[in-house]
Amino acid sequence: MRLADYIRSMFQEPRAHFDKRKGWIEVVCGSMFSGKTEELIRRLTRAKIANQNVEIFKPTLDNRYNETEVVSHNSNSIQSTPVMASVNILLMSGEANVIGIDEAQFFDDELVNVCQNLAEQGKRIIVAGLDMDYLGKPFGPVPELMAVADYVTKLHAICMSCGDVATHSFRKVNVDNLVMLGESDTYEARCRTCFNEGMKNSLSQEKNTAHSV
User: Which residue, 61, 23, 11, 19, is CA-closest to 149?
Assistant: First the structure.
């Protein structure tokens, strides 16, 4: 496959199956600032234009921009339903045949079973989320969702240190909590090399601070 064809395929959602009984799972993943939510909104908007019944869900803790809307870093938005647990998605999906789920990494591990259950009901499931946390480790249920998904799109950002393709989310503040909502003041996208250098520098600073106390 030519590079141009590969890049173009990254931004094309799967063609809709003509057999309405068939459901499937799409996962859109990547680092922060890679355009995951933007791509989720694009696919859901196209489904709405096609007069499909669409429902969108997000975790209640994600209220950075709006409590009831999914909002991208570019300020594009779409109405959503905040839910506390993934099982609520199963209960509230109703007659929808297209279901969008944003910030999947913040949901519980049951999200994998929920998505598979909905797909088996003939629904199209589109999930967006971080595949790695700020330590560069698999994040929440997203990696397992990638394994069981029918289609996986991994998006990339631009490294804020060197300008190369970025795959990691580097936390710029010294906070150890796994879940920490933030924007460009807290996180930046980095390539593997710059991410590892940043982690080494952070560890060195922590050791120096500990010795000075």
Answer: 23
Do 63 and 84 touch, CB atoms closer than 8 A? no
Q: N- to C-terminal Cα distance for the chain?
A: 57
**Which helix (H) or strand (E) is 120 found in, with range?**
helix 111-120
Residue 161 burial class via C-beta count within 10 angstroms: exposed 0-12, middle 13-18, buried 19 and up: middle
> How far, in Å, CA of 9 to CA of 134, rounded?
28
What the chain holds in terms of domains, given with CATH numbers, is 21-212 (3.40.50.300)
165 - beta bridge partners?
158
CB 119 within 8 A of CB 125: yes
Q: Model pTM? A: 0.81
Q: Which residues are catalytic?
A: 103
CB 28 within 8 A of CB 36: yes
Euclidean distance between CA atoms 187 and 172, whole angstroms: 6
Q: Are 65 and 21 in contact (CB under 8 A)?
A: no
pLDDT digits (tens, 9 = 90+) for 23-70: 999 999 999 999 999 999 999 999 999 999 999 999 988 655 555 556
